[in-house]
């Protein structure tokens, strides 16, 4: 009787980084790779992922909460994340599906916390409530100079983004985005067991391969299934 490779355990993978670094592209590419290996995976995003969370996303990214301040936005993001985890992420993982998310709790740490100045105790408290123990298995932080990231985003992509989200974060000046970049790098340095910082300025193909190689090193059962 032939030995059938064991199905890799369900994994929770998140992608983080500033605006225009290519997170969505790499999420799509990873999903394709996993599907080719007959690994069922769910693609999602934050804020969003569920109807309730998408409603919160629209409210925030259209700028309707901006006057409330970064603290209130952190609370709103946590509320959306709580529904996202309980309604989609946890059930998917429990059923054996991998979950690949374009942003997760590190974005709140970076945007509202380290860049926005919200007290770390509040950020951590909201995080504990929203995650309910569901930490990502691995987080890829895609790193790029914001000036380079903005320059490579073409007008069509900008128009598409603004049509969906308004101008909530894109309108911040370059210095703000540089601080955001440093915030993500600080998160990666503080969480080396979970976070992997990768240069996003390389070609999309090269970055995809580096992500895949990292996953195979981190999860040997994935490489075994491929072999």
UniProtKB/TrEMBL annotation:
A GO biological process held by the record: dTTP biosynthetic process
The UniProt record lists the keyword S-adenosyl-L-methionine: no
Protein name: Thymidylate kinase
NCBIfam families in alphabetical order: DTMP_kinase
Record GO cellular component, one term: cytosol
Gene Ontology MF terms: ATP binding; dTMP kinase activity
Regions crossing the membrane: none
Domain Thymidylate kinase-like: 15-211
EC number(s) per entry: 2.7.4.9
UniProt cross-references to InterPro entries, sorted A to Z: P-loop_NTPase, Thymidylate_kin-like_dom, Thymidylate_kin_CS, Thymidylate_kinase
Organism annotation: Devosia insulae DS-56
Keywords per UniProt: ATP-binding, Kinase, Nucleotide biosynthesis, Nucleotide-binding, Transferase
HAMAP family: Thymidylate_kinase
Function, in words: Phosphorylation of dTMP to form dTDP in both de novo and salvage pathways of dTTP synthesis.
Protein family (similarity comment): Belongs to the thymidylate kinase family.
Catalytic activity: dTMP + ATP = dTDP + ADP
Lineage: Bacteria, Pseudomonadati, Pseudomonadota, Alphaproteobacteria, Hyphomicrobiales
Binding site for ATP: 17-24
């Amino acid at each position: 009787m032939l030995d059938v490779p064991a199905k890799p355990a369900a994994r929770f993978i998140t992608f983080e980084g500033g605006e225009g670094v290519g997170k969505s592209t790499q999420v799509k590419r990873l999903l394709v790779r996993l599907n080719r290996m007959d690994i069922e995976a769910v693609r999602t995003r934050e804020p969003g992922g569920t109807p309730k969370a998408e409603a919160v996303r629209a409210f925030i990214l259209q700028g309707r909460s901006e006057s409330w301040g970064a603290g209130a936005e952190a609370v709103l993001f946590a509320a959306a994340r709580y529904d996202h985890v309980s309604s989609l992420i946890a059930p998917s993982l429990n059923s054996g599906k991998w979950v690949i998310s374009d942003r997760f709790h590190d974005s709140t740490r970076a945007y509202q916390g380290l860049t926005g100045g919200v007290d770390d105790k509040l950020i951590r408290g909201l995080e504990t409530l929203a995650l309910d123990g569901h930490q990502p298995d691995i987080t890829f932080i895609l790193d790029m100079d914001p000036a380079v990231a903005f320059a490579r985003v073409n007008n069509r992509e900008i128009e598409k983004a603004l049509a969906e989200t308004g101008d909530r974060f894109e309108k911040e000046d370059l210095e703000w985005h540089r601080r955001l970049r440093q915030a993500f790098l600080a998160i990666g340095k503080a969480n080396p067991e979970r976070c992997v910082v990768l240069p996003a300025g390389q070609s999309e193909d090269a970055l995809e391969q580096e992500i895949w190689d990292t996953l195979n090193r981190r999860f040997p059962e994935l490489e075994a299934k491929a072999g």
